[in-house]
Amino acid sequence: MASDLHERICDVVARIPAGRVATYGQVAQLAGLGGQARLVGYALYASDRPLPWHRVINARGEISPRGDSYSEMIQYQLLANEGVEFDKWGRISLKRFRWNGEMPPPASPSPPS
Predict the structure, then answer these.
(1) CA 102 to CA 36: how far, in whole Å?
(2) No. of H helices and E strands in the chain?
(3) Would you kindly state where each structural domain of the chain is located, as residue ranges?
(4) How many angstroms separate the CA atoms of 102 and 26, rounded?
(5) Beta-carbon count within 10 A of 85 CB
(6) Which of 9, 73, 63, 62 is nearest to 36 (CA)?
(7) Residue 21 DSSP label
(8) Which residues make beta-bridge pairs with 92?
(9) Angle made by CA atoms 60, 28, 51, in degrees to the nearest 5
(10) Closest by Cα among 56, 73, 55 to 18
């Protein structure tokens, strides 16, 4: 059962586009698990899938502390590299950078050469 829930969470996280963020609670809601934001963190920690984990932040628009400042610095750098901006307190504007839950349309196939 937990693995099915984890897969649903990972499927949502995999859809977050570059330059956007989602909160743990938002990911839970989109996975049909409203109110289970902590489960999102557990699922990301346990997953061996290559996921854009760095795009998941807390509801205050901050990178959640993990007790490992190195991974927090990596998350900050990955987000900054995607154009996500932080204010002087290290917060991200959710109004500006929060993912709306939709996926952009697929790229058009390249015309044959």
Answers:
(1) 21
(2) 5, 2
(3) 2-97
(4) 12
(5) 11
(6) 9
(7) B
(8) 86
(9) 90
(10) 55
3-class DSSP state of 84: coil
Q: Does domain 2-97 have CATH number 3.30.2420.10?
A: no
pTM of the full structure:
0.86
Task: From residue 13, give the alpha-carbon distance in Å to each of 42, 88, 89.
Answer: 13, 27, 25
CA distance 28 to 44: 12
pLDDT one-digit tens code per residue, 48-83: 999 999 999 999 999 998 877 888 999 999 999 999
Which tokens sit at 74? Answer: 């990596």
Helix axes 37-46, 2-14, angle to 10 degrees: 90
